[in-house]
Amino acid sequence: MKISSSFKVGILTIVALSILLFTILWVKGRSFSSAERIIVHFKDVNGMRPGSGVQMMGLRVGQVEEITPVIEGENSYVKLKFVITEPDIDIPKASMLTIQQSGLIGEQFLEITPPKLRSVYIPVVNQQLLTVDSDVEILLDEKYYDVGKVKKSQILSSQMVPEEVRDSIKTNYAYKIDYYINLPGLIVPTFMKGQIVTTNGVKKLRIAPLDNSPIPYPHQDSPYTIVEPMRIANFMDLQYKAAESLTEMTGVVNELLNDKMIADLTKSVSNFKDLTAQATTTLEKAEKLIDSSKNDIDAMLWLLTDATNNFNKLATNINGVVSDERFKPAMFETADAISNMSKQLAPIIGAVNSKEFAEDLTSLMGNLKEISTSVNQMTKDEHLKQKISDSIDNLNITMCEVTKALETVNGTGDRDNLKQIINDTSETIENLKKFSEKLNKRFLLFRLMF
């Protein structure tokens, strides 16, 4: 069968049109794939063009089809549409989309990074291992949200914990919990701290930054995490600001660290060294003094202990005297005898200086009262109590005899004997006053000593 020239021309025209159409579509960045087109929004695409590649973990899996700017004032953005041309490629939720560049002047491409597996280390306090697919929560805008899942949990030695978080592990073993973030738009620091909590009966992993810095909740419509590119101009501007701040700080430091300041600091350091040396010497002397005085200190402590024991014994004796009921009747009888003697002296009291006689008698009574009180408060010695009781009884007998003698004298008319008795009585009262004052002073001294 012979093919006509017109048929050949038609076939050639169709092939040429097909090649032309394919070339135009390739230049426009359109693909013949029937896969779903994905649209994401960037604030800036940094010069990316349609037809740029789409890579996942370094492999080309699709291409960019359309890039359209949308002008809405301050909320302007760039709409980027791309398609995955490779079969059986699914983009995980919360994957990170970034615009990368191959080399310094190479072409740009869209990089897709699936959620990374992160690790957190928790001290082993009790056996509370988390199961696979347990929820991960974090504080966002003062509220806890579930932002990920636990992938793996295991126990290992604290020596295998990274140095960045080793200080927070105080136990010999630690939980290593691997997890991933599936909340779109959430970017967390590389190193986090965590704890196992129970919410509504369900165990969860709660994570937080090491410095507890607040993290805002990411409000976005895209199921992916969009990372805006940084232009060279912006990068250089940040570097310039950093250099400017560093220059300013250097100037301030140079102004502060002038020659005078350095001289003062040097002198202060020297003085501090001298003071440290003196303090060290003083401490050494104090240690030697304590060591040399150890025996003396032990002896003093022994003497203090012995004195305490003696004082306790003295207190026991004093309590015994106070509780003895035999002193009370003796004191009452003595007081009655002195009272009777004063009544008998009343008729003849005018023969002597009544004022001095009354003062001496009053002092005697007061001293006797204080002596009896001191005795009752200061001893429980049975031998001493017996002697004091005998003395009081003798004094009582003496007072009774004096009273009888006064009665006899009052019944007679012998004025000379009466006068002599009055004089003797006055001298006796005065001597008793002096004796009671001396005795009272001795008891007062005894009380002050103890």
What does the model show?
The chain is an alpha+beta fold and 450 residues long. The chain folds into four domains: 14-113, no CATH class; 118-222, no CATH class; 263-290; 311-449, no CATH class. 50% of the residues lie in helices and 21% in strands. It is built from nine helices and 13 strands. The protein has helices at residues 5-28, 163-166, 232-256, 259-292, 294-323, 327-345, 354-378, 382-411, 415-449, and strands at 37-42, 53-56, 59-70, 77-84, 96-101, 108-113, 118-123, 135-140, 143-157, 173-181, 192-199, 202-209, 225-226. The strands form two sheets. Strands 1-4-3-2-6-5-13 form a seven-stranded mixed β-sheet, with no helix packed on it. A six-stranded mixed β-sheet has the order 7-10-9-8-12-11, with no helix packed on it. The longest helix is centred in the last third of the chain and has 35 residues, at 415-449.
Top keywords for this entry?
13 strands; 450 residues; six-stranded mixed β-sheet; alpha+beta; seven-stranded mixed β-sheet; elongated; 21% strand; 9 helices; 4 domains
Mean pLDDT: 76
The profile of the biggest β sheet is: 7 strands, mixed
Uncertain ranges: none
Strand order of the largest sheet: 1-4-3-2-6-5-13
Order of helices and strands: HEEEEEEEEEHEEEEHHHHHHH
Query: Which overall shape is indicated by the principal axes computed on the Cα atoms?
Result: elongated
β-strand percent reads 15-25%
Helix content: 40-55%
Query: How far is the first residue's CA from the last residue's CA?
Result: 149 Å
* Beta strands, count: 13
Helix-strand makeup class: alpha+beta
Q: What's the helix count? A: 9
Structural domain tally: 4
Radius of gyration: 56 Å
